[in-house]
């Protein structure tokens, strides 16, 4: 079993992003009036009771590595407030979770990094203030590297808090990371709800949707043989790369807002070497079309 900060965690983590209200695009990404992600397009979070139920289910299924963000939501309503409320209601669960928090952005934005030592300190102090001792800050990560600030300055500021015992460790986000395509219930572009942010993501655009859906159809064939969902096959594919071909240990952190989805995510498909070869051949035949994010949100990825 993988260890983080000398603590064993389950093979699948738990992402909290979907449990916070998210404006799209996160301001300020100029020009807002012409941006393909409308500034008035927002997602309402699930109820607190639904979120708590999903969080409890994650622990029940050994999904103990949780990832949230100061940037997931607004300064007054994000992952940190949710976590504080949860651990206030369930204090015994705090020691069961290894918590990783993304921060280091300009307050009120989700994609505008400020990696300066001053802002990293502000961000960590804010995380600790909101958590209010209800849960330790086990890992802190800059959500995006700031191209205008040396990474040594950003990391150095986090290390100061580690040495002081206020933060357990550091991690990095969107740093030359390999990603997999999310599969879902949509069969054509028109199936995507009008208010869904997926309508603004490059891989879901009409000119590439039909090509990308072919990949899903092939994954569905594998899923059917495994008595699994395409999402479980995708998670199994990620886990199968863990510790192989020079890679480190990999823990996927899929987000979920319902008990049912948490249960699905914590039961990834077990893929054989032959399965992996089949998927490799599929990816060669049906390469993913389009970037994960629109151009305006790509500037701080994979640095």
Secondary structure layout plus pairing:
Blueprint: E1 3-4, E2 7-8, E3 14-15, E4 22-24, E5 41-43, H1 48-60, E6 65-69, E7 73-74, E8 77-78, H2 79-89, E9 98-103, H3 117-131, E10 139-142, H4 151-163, E11 170-172, H5 206-226, H6 230-240, H7 259-265, H8 273-285
Parallel strand pairs: 3-6, 6-9, 9-10, 10-11
Antiparallel strand pairs: 1-2, 4-5, 7-8
Question: In words, what does this structure look like?
Answer:
This protein is an alpha/beta fold. The protein is built from eight helices and eleven strands. The chain has helices spanning 48-60, 79-89, 117-131, 151-163, 206-226, 230-240, 259-265, 273-285; strands spanning 3-4, 7-8, 14-15, 22-24, 41-43, 65-69, 73-74, 77-78, 98-103, 139-142, 170-172. Strands 3-6-9-10-11 form a five-stranded parallel sheet, covered by helices on one side. It has a two-stranded antiparallel sheet with strand order 1-2. A two-stranded antiparallel ribbon has the order 4-5. One of its GO terms (molecular function) is oxidoreductase activity. Residues 45-183, 184-282 form the NADP-dependent oxidoreductase domain. It comes from Pseudopithomyces chartarum. This is NADP-dependent oxidoreductase domain-containing protein. Keywords: Oxidoreductase.
Distance between the termini: 29 Å
Please state the CA-atom Rg, rounded to the nearest Å. Answer: 19 Å
Largest sheet: 5 strands, parallel
User: What's the overall average pLDDT, rounded?
Assistant: 81
Helix count? 8
H and E order? EEEEEHEEEHEHEHEHHHH
GO molecular function: oxidoreductase activity
Domain NADP-dependent oxidoreductase: 45-183, 184-282
Protein name: NADP-dependent oxidoreductase domain-containing protein
Pfam family, one: Aldo_ket_red
């Amino acid at each position: 079993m993988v260890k983080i900060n000398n603590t064993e965690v389950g093979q699948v983590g738990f992402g909290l992003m979907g449990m916070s209200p998210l404006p799209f695009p996160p301001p300020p990404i100029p020009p807002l009036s012409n941006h393909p992600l409308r500034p008035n397009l927002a997602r309402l979070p699930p109820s607190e009771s639904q979120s708590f139920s999903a969080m409890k289910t994650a622990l029940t299924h050994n999904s103990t590595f949780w990832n949230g963000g100061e940037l997931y939501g607004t300064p007054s309503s994000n992952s940190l407030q949710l976590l504080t409320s949860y651990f206030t209601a369930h204090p015994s669960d705090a020691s069961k979770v290894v918590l990783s928090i993304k921060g280091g952005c300009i307050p009120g934005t989700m994609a505008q990094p400020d990696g300066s030592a001053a802002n990293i300190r502000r961000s960590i102090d804010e995380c600790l203030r909101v958590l209010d001792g209800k849960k330790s800050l086990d890992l802190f990560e800059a959500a995006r590297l700031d191209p205008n600030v040396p990474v040594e300055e950003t990391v150095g500021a986090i290390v100061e808090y580690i040495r002081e015992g206020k933060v357990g460790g550091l991690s990095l986000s969107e740093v030359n990371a390999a990603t997999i395509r999310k599969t879902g219930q949509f069969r054509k572009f028109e199936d995507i709800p009008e208010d869904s942010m997926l309508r603004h993501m490059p891989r879901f655009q009409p000119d590439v949707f039909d090509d990308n859906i072919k990949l899903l159809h092939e994954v569905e064939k594998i899923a059917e043989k495994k008595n699994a969902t395409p999402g479980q096959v995708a998670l199994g594919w990620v886990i199968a790369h863990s510790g192989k071909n020079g890679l480190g240990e990999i823990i996927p952190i899929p987000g979920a807002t319902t008990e049912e989805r948490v249960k699905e995510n914590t039961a990834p498909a077990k893929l054989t070497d032959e399965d992996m070869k089949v998927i490799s051949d599929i990816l060669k035949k049906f390469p993913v079309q389009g970037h994960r994010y629109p151009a305006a949100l790509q500037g701080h990825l994979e640095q």
